Amino acid sequence: MNEFLDALxxxxxxxxxxxxxxxxxxxxxxxxxxxxxxxxxxxxRTGKVKYLRLTRLFGKIFLINFAMGxxxxxxxxxxxxxxxxxxxxxxxxxxxAPLAMExxxxxFFEATFIGLWIFGWDKLxxxxxxxxxxxxxxxxxxxxxxxLAANAFMQNPVGFEINEERGRAELDSIGSVxxxxxxxxxxxxxxxxxxxxxxxxxxxxxxxxxxxxxxVDEMRTTLRFGAWTNIVAFLGVGLTGHELGMVMTQTQPxxxxxxxxxxNTASGPDASFSIFSWxxxxxxxxxxxxxIPYLLSFLSNGTFDGTVEGIRDLQAEYExxxxxxxxxxxxxxxxxxxxxxxxxxWSFRWMTGLGAFAALVSAVGxxxxxxxxxxxxxxxxxxxxxxxxxxLASLVGWVFTEMGRQPWIVFGVxxxxxxxxxxxxxxxxxxxxxxxxxVYGGLAVLEFKLITRAAKEGPPEIEMHDxxxxxxxxxxxxxxxTVY
Amino acid sequence: MELTTLWFLIVGVLLIGYFxxxxxxxxVGMSLPFLGRDDTDRRLIINxxxxxxxxxxxxxxxxxxxLFAAFPEWYATMFSGFYLALLLILVxxxxxxxxxxxxxxxxxxxxxxxxxxxxxxxxxxxxxLWGVAFANLAQGLPISLLPQGGWIYxxxxxxxxxxxxxxxxxxxxxxxxAHGLVFISLKTLGDMRQRARRLATKVGIAAIVAGAxxxxxxxxxxxxxxxxxxxxxxxxxxxxGLIGGFIANLAGREGWAFTGNAVAITFALLTIxxxxxxxxxxxxxxxxxxxxxxxxxSSQKTLELMTxxxxxxxxLVLAYQAWTYWVFRKRLTREAIPAGAH
Lengths: 484, 342
Fold this sequence. Notes:
heterodimer; A: 484 residues; two-stranded antiparallel ribbon; two-stranded antiparallel sheet; 16 helices; 69% helix; 7% strand; globular; B: 342 residues; mainly alpha; Formate dehydrogenase/DMSO reductase fold; 14 helices; 4 strands; 76% helix
């Protein structure tokens, strides 16, 4: 019974659940607002109604998704205080700053301009109105930066000093916090992954309609726009991922070792990357694996003859460094500094594999759709089913980042078990875990239904005034007014 | 002024911004079953806050983050202490937030009815629960010190549900309701405008009675407070705002009625903050356990940084939010609501 009511375990599950769920909506918001802004700009510049119809279609999908991103975000902010109050006390002085900056600088901005965009169609001049969606995008990007800077502090704490008297970490340099190398590399990596996420949604929607021969002109544009977006974004994801891997090796070598299930320190050709590996869970025996020599060294150091530290050596190092007499906050109760290796190993591979697969599908798709030829149904099926793949890649990417950080809540400063709220009973956390699971589960079903319905309806009809006599005419702004 | 006091005021301003702004859209949400005779009515009501509810709610998120950065001890103690009440608020806000966007996306009446329910409960619960929470802050809470430093709340959800706390919740609920009704009559024309005004009169009377009781109780409870005159002054201005708003509503002066309600909310909260000062949480177990503003505050460096950020951004925020209200200044009518969802 007590196993089920352990506040620490439950709080960790809750953090994982609510954060991953939030992270389904955030990347799509970041990516989709950019693509919608580009489509609307194309309309404003060319006057082609095709672009306006696509703006309306993907704008609707964007808004259904945006609502979820906002409401699940409120939970993120509150649960640090609810479930992790010791953590909040200890690092609030420094961790709260980027969160407050996000609110004051980015979130107000984003929330205001989204309202102006949704309801401003018939109230603002065309050129001002298109700026509002660009501002929404800028707001989401700024917001992502501050949040990633806060997360980077947990991965690689910088710019702080410990105040012994107050028993807490205090801000020393906000510049260091905002220019944390982990944030600087994590940010473009996440940004490109988010854009890719939105790109596949475009591809899937286009494929669904093209298979049925509907909205052919609009959907061919969508398909090629989406596929190009994916390929460019994937290049960005890959390059920044490599940078991130090297920063990670320097800042959290244990995470890199766990990503590769590398128990013993290796260098040169021995620092090989295993594409697939099957062994006993303790890593003592390897039964079967496919390996590429030198690659791990390259991934972690950027050179082929570098050394990558293994889990065993790191464990010994950390024990010496963090489990002295005066280390109440830094020594985990079981003395182990090793994250759950099978989770880190497999999440790392699924992240890279799924991302690469989605990019490959896009590249092949671009090649075979370059002419207006009839294509077999399975081509479209593949394109449709690729849609959730970058989302899954993003999610396992976060599982890797956050599980690889364990047992630390702030690397080298405080362990996760130290951060939990004292005085919050396990049953209360269990109640909230159940409530969030039910509410989030219900909303996930709704969200999926609404987005697929909007996608299947396709681009809306737009009535035209034709009073100028110059052929295409002007779309009727009044008819466009979005209302609830 | 010391930075800690300044940040006590800034957090106060953010919270007041949240209750004044989101307060009226909670009221609008609560009015749905009372004023919405058919679907067009209900959509008209929701559209009065359509462009602004999201930016209004952002004030809560920013207030929460500012609280975290400026007073981490307060954030940690209050949010872990009020655990279940906060959980209820969060669920209410989640369901309400998605409902505005989702209610018109589905097909069938049952779908819409569900989301109308979520909007109603999601709008009624937060002001009620926040009112309970703030009244309890003013009254004092069973908090004690942790051995490793910091504070801990020793009570439960039931501790909060005492008569004074419940009265505080009721007052907040009624004021927000009246505030929202006045906003609807300010933003609509025709029949809706008249009906909203009539209901605002009824709710206004209840708000004045409950509000007077709460303010007098608060003054009596703090009669030994050093700055009693400030508490009395704030309570008096709150009362004048509430009564003035009521009279303006009777006279059909909707702009003034809205202003009066906004003043009432602002000064009712200031009364509570003044009663608290110089503490953030007053301990009922032992006064020595009370959390002072100084004790809960972040370091000087963080507060300085945050002061710069707030100093630069708040004027901008106020400017572009005011512009939003200007863009959507027109009154709405049933005719402006196109038949069928978009």
